[in-house]
Design goal:
The radius of gyration is 16 Å and the shape is globular. Strand 2 and strand 3 form a beta hairpin. The chain is built from 3 helices and 14 strands. The protein is 12% helix and 29% strand. The longest helix has 11 residues. Strands 5, 7, 8, 9, 10, 11, 12 and 14 form an 8-stranded mixed β-sheet that branches. The protein has a 6-stranded mixed β-sheet with strand order 6-4-3-2-1-13, with no helix packed on it. It is mainly beta.
């Protein structure tokens, strides 16, 4: 599995020739949106669905190519051999938007995507999420989950690899903390890296953290 990060919650995840983009970068963030061909767009936050929202949206760089499959909101999905499970965070955040967390399952690896998680008060979802190999979690504090609470939640889930997101980077317009305090709360260190290329057999028994750079 190959993983790149583009700031906030935007990742490019490639596995078995299938490309997933999570939470595309919005212009108001001050960050540049990536342009690459993607098969699946996965959004962890959305306004209440309207008929317009249900239409497929293309994030492909080349016009005229087939639109990517849009997944937004809880449910069970399958596309191109990738299974995606989503749960609503009904007890987290405000009532004007729907926040969801997802589990991406491939033949080899499972990825937990906590997205725009603010407060977590859903132990039943934690049980359904089950074991994950890789966990992507907000690490910059408010308006998302506090860094100490994120560290506590990670210990409960116990993934093999933690990838932080939604932390301070150059060009980001909103206020956010960097990942330093998050790593301190987790009691771990990480050497920043541009991308991750990982196989199941390369994940050790001890939890690791990978801080990605833009």
């Amino acid at each position: 599995m190959l993983i790149n990060w583009y700031g906030e919650g935007c990742f490019k995840i490639v596995e078995n020739g299938v490309t997933i983009m999570t939470d595309p970068v919005e212009s108001y963030t001050g960050l540049s949106a990536p342009r690459f061909k993607t098969d699946i767009i996965l959004k962890t936050i959305m306004n209440p669905l309207t008929p317009e929202d249900e239409k497929p949206v293309s994030a492909n760089a080349v016009s005229g190519e087939e639109a990517a499959m849009m997944i937004a909101g809880p449910g069970e999905y399958e596309a191109k051999g990738i299974q995606i499970l989503g749960w609503p965070l009904t007890k987290s955040g405000d009532k004007d938007v729907l926040r969801s967390i997802f589990k991406i399952k491939t033949d080899d690896l499972s990825v937990g995507l906590l997205g725009h998680l603010a407060d977590f008060n859903d132990p039943e979802i934690l049980e359904e999420l089950g074991e994950v190999d890789i966990l992507i979690v907000p690490a910059g504090g408010a308006p998302y989950i506090a860094q100490d609470a994120a560290a506590k939640l990670i210990r409960q889930i116990a993934p093999k690899l933690v990838i932080p997101c939604f932390f301070k980077v150059p060009g980001l317009k909103r206020k956010s903390d960097d990942a330093t305090e998050f790593l301190k709360q987790l009691g771990m260190k990480s050497v920043p890296t541009e991308k991750i290329s990982i196989k199941k057999k390369e994940l050790g028994e001890k939890m690791q953290v990978a801080v990605l750079t833009l």
